[in-house]
Design goal:
16 helices, five-stranded antiparallel β-sheet, alpha+beta, 27% helix, globular, Rossmann fold, Jelly Rolls, 821 residues
């Protein structure tokens, strides 16, 4: 029997859907066949980029006197390419929140400012904006604030695509929309008929014969079929209410025929295509005003700190050095930890907060939570301390049932994700149920020189001593692991003692940082932008190719499985054997580990040969301005790409989108490759250009049948030298999905509301599952554990009923597919 867990946590957004129609505004992303069509992604990039520029100047963070916008941003980020990439990726995150509204709420006119729902849309944005500001003041999660920003900007931008404002006023903006109590414009009423007939055939549209179909100076918007507001019938021949007018809008065939949509530059899709650029300019300027106006802008309400966090206007240049080490917490979240979790949360969050203010901040923060059964284990990695703190503060406990837990599995995951020469802190009250993995744990900790710190609180504190005795031998596993790896084990009789130890660990960590800060990373002198070239596993006499292109300034080759450099042959493009005596080459050694640090490596194909009997694991990174990131997208029925929430379904087609930062001039891209955890290619697909500006993106359509560990992009530089760039990207296809529906609205106090969810078996076998539902507010009023028996291809819809009991409480469920494998 498999278990699905549904947790309704800090913030609830529920779902309602009507029949979907095609995109009715600016498209979600660039359209390769329509290079002149501007998307939400484009509007956001320019709008947020310009807003960040104004923010930096207004607060004297950068001197912008006489400098173009791009130079100001470049000076702010400097050589900190990682932070600059995070800034761009954050814009895409905000765009993803827009895309979700565009896709999931396509049938509701006011989200898109269709159907003359102008005042409704205006007040909706005002309400969202106020809730965003209130949430910011209450210390809400940063991701929630980003979500609200995306929702506000979506409808704000749609105003210029779907109304006749641009027809009347060009690329100017209405500053009051979504902000002020009233709009200083006249709006069409029910009896007005603001449009006249115009042709609907493609030839006429291409000839511009629908240019003069508006006949009013009042503000109006078009009706669109399949939405919740229907177009009223006309009372007079040849005139009537305006239609949206896209090709899927059947209301365009009724008087007044035609439409006023201008969200695309293609006459085949938008009757007012000739106004597309003006609509884009207005939407961009409105975005800048909404965010950064000195009096009304959102930035002024969020304040300097939150603005930096929400929009990732951050750089690591504050005299801090990014060190190649990690901070990892492995935390037991089973039910027996309920007496201890608050203290662990408090201590761990404080730990991270103070570490990020130290002289050397870690390259990444890692959080692993383990439970029972083992497949409930979760792991998360970030280089953003605030994101880590938010994850820690959001921890809750549930499940378990018996005393021992799968702690060693969690430790292995944490060690796998951790950097070399790092420390892992393990918090649990239970012995190890998976003690058989002791040797595996010791091997990986020794290989990566990782020190474990076990912090144990009254093993299964709520259990009877008689039961604890049954697992006394198992608890000694922690001592064995610590002894073999240089770690330590401490046990505590109270939660407060445990919390005090967390602070003691922090002081020890800070002391170590202080004493070693002068050394920092001088040995390899790698700045904060580290690009992954590739990773691989090799056997005896096997060659690994290392492609070094013109953008590589220095290279790090990490070889796990040997500490004897004579057991490997590293050769440069000239075929010469490389050792520590070579110019600009240094070696680092530890148990089962060799690291080559190579400054200014020769461009061309390097090779590394494994000449020993043991398999080796190789990780190759470079200091390079050129890097990539990837996202997995689902394909809508109209062919657009939307964010995939959760896991893909095995065998269905999806899209891998790769964002390229600073691709060297005159380079070409050939393929996108999905690789497994050993670096072996699983799928190789031709790379297709998605967009050039404002971001260079490529995409590939593919079906996924097995676990993927990363994405590579292959190509050639200006000298025809092959290059590879990789990024970590775990993809786990599933055959059972759990989906909940979307609704943006309020949970009325004391009223019972329903959350609808669907479970589907996409596989070829019968599945027996149990859905366990829990929440941290006590709002659920019905069955919390439901059993399913689902045949292949079948779906079942169920409801969870909740009732609010606290005023001004934000509730949410994750908008994602949960899975049973």
């Amino acid at each position: 029997m498999k278990h699905l867990k549904l947790f309704i946590g800090y913030l609830i957004i529920l779902v309602t859907l009507v029949e979907r129609s095609l995109v009715s505004a600016f498209p979600p992303q660039s359209i390769p066949q329509e290079s002149s069509t501007k998307s939400h992604s484009t509007i956001n990039f320019y709008g947020i980029y310009l807003s960040a520029h104004q923010f930096l100047l207004r607060h004297n963070i950068v001197n912008g006197t006489g400098k173009p916008v791009s130079q100001v941003l470049d000076e702010f980020f400097g050589t900190d390419r990682d932070s600059q990439t995070n800034f761009y990726l954050n814009i895409l995150k905000i765009t993803d929140h827009q895309n979700i509204v565009q896709k999931e709420l396509a049938g509701f006119a006011h989200y898109h400012v269709n159907g003359e729902q102008i005042l409704t849309a205006h007040n909706y944005v005002r309400s969202l904006r106020k809730s965003l500001i209130d949430l910011a003041e209450s210390g809400a999660d940063i991701d929630i604030l980003r979500e609200r920003v995306g929702q506000c900007l979506y409808t704000l931008q749609q105003f210029y695509s779907n109304t006749n404002w641009v027809d009347l006023h060009g690329d100017t903006i209405i500053k009051e929309f979504g902000i002020s109590a009233t709009l200083p414009v006249s709006i069409s009423n029910l009896s007005d008929e603001p449009c006249s007939d115009c042709p609907t055939d493609l030839t006429s549209l291409q000839s511009g014969l629908c240019k003069n179909n508006t006949r009013t100076t009042k503000l109006t918007s078009g009706y669109k079929s399949k939405q919740d507001v229907s177009k009223p019938p006309s009372n007079n021949q040849g005139i009537g209410k305006c239609s949206h007018g896209s090709q899927d809008d059947t209301s365009r065939l009724k008087s007044a025929t035609g439409g006023i949509y201008k969200g695309r530059s293609s006459s085949a899709h938008a009757p007012h295509f000739y106004l597309h650029n003006e609509a884009f300019e207005a939407a961009k300027l409105a975005t800048v005003y909404f965010l950064s106006d000195e009096n009304d802008g959102l930035f002024s309400h969020l304040g300097i700190y939150l603005t930096k966090e929400v929009f990732q206007i951050k750089s690591k240049k504050e005299n801090k050095e990014v060190k190649d080490y990690s901070i990892t917490f492995v935390i037991d979240v089973t039910g027996s930890m309920s007496d201890n979790i608050a203290k662990v949360i408090q201590g761990a969050a404080s730990f991270v907060d103070q570490i990020r203010q130290s002289k050397r901040i870690p390259e990444k923060y890692i959080l692993v939570t383990f439970s029972d059964p083992v497949d409930l284990e979760k792991s998360r990695v970030t280089n953003d301390a605030d994101e880590m703190i938010n994850w820690i503060n959001g921890l809750t406990v549930s499940g378990g049932g018996d005393c021992p837990e799968y702690s060693l599995s969690g430790l292995i995951t944490g060690a796998t994700l951790s950097n070399f020469n790092s420390t892992i802190y393990i918090y649990t009250d239970a012995p190890a149920k998976d003690e058989s993995r002791e040797t595996e744990v010791i091997e990986i900790l020794q290989r990566k020189t990782i020190t474990p710190k076990f912090r144990l609180r009254n093993e299964c504190g709520s259990r009877r001593k008689r039961e604890i005795g049954r697992y006394k031998r198992q608890s000694s596993v922690y001592d064995s692991i610590a002894q073999a790896t240089g770690g330590d084990v401490e046990r505590f009789s109270s939660s407060q003692d445990l919390a005090d130890k967390v602070q003691e660990d922090l002081m020890s960590e800070l002391s170590f940082i202080q004493s070693n800060s002068s050394q920092a990373i001088s040995q390899n002198n790698l700045p904060s932008s580290i690009s992954i070239i590739k990773w691989s596993s090799t056997n005896t006499n096997q060659l690994t190719n290392i492609e070094v292109d013109n953008s590589v300034d220095s290279m790090r080759i990490e070889i796990n499985g040997t500490s004897n450099s004579s057991e490997i042959h590293l050769r440069n493009p000239n075929g010469s054997l490389v050792d520590s005596g070579a110019q600009d080459v240094s070696l680092q050694y530890s148990d089962y580990l060799i690291i080559f640090l190579i400054e200014s490596p020769s461009k061309g194909l390097w090779t590394l040969e494994n000449i020993v009997s043991n398999p080796l694991t190789i990780n190759i990174t470079a200091n390079s301005s050129f890097d990539i990131s990837s996202s997995l997208r689902e394909i809508s029925f109209e062919g657009f790409f939307y964010p995939l929430n959760g896991n893909p379904v095995s065998g269905e087609e999806y899209v891998i989108v790769v964002l390229l930062e600073n691709l060297p001039a005159n380079s070409s891209i050939s393929s996108i490759v999905l690789v497994d955890e050993k670096g072996n290619a699983v799928t190789t697909t031709v790379a297709n250009l998605l967009s050039v500006t404002p971001n260079l993106q490529y995409f590939a359509k593919t079906k996924i049948f097995k676990q993927i560990a990363g994405v590579q992009i292959h190509g050639q530089d200006s000298t025809s030298q092959q290059f590879i760039r990789s990024c970590k990207h775990t993809i786990n296809p599933v055959d059972v999905t759990l989906k909940m529906k979307l609704f943006i609205g309020d949970l009325s106090l004391s009223n019972i509301e329903q959350l609808e969810y669907n479970i589907t078996n996409h596989g070829g076998n019968n599945r027996s599952l149990t859905l366990d539902v829990s929440d941290d507010k006590g709002y659920i009023v019905d069955n919390r554990s439901i059993h399913f028996h689902i045949s292949p291809g079948e779906s079942e819809n169920k409801l969870v009923f909740i009732r609010g009991t606290q005023q001004s409480t934000i509730v949410c469920h994750p908008l994602c597919d949960l899975l049973a494998t």
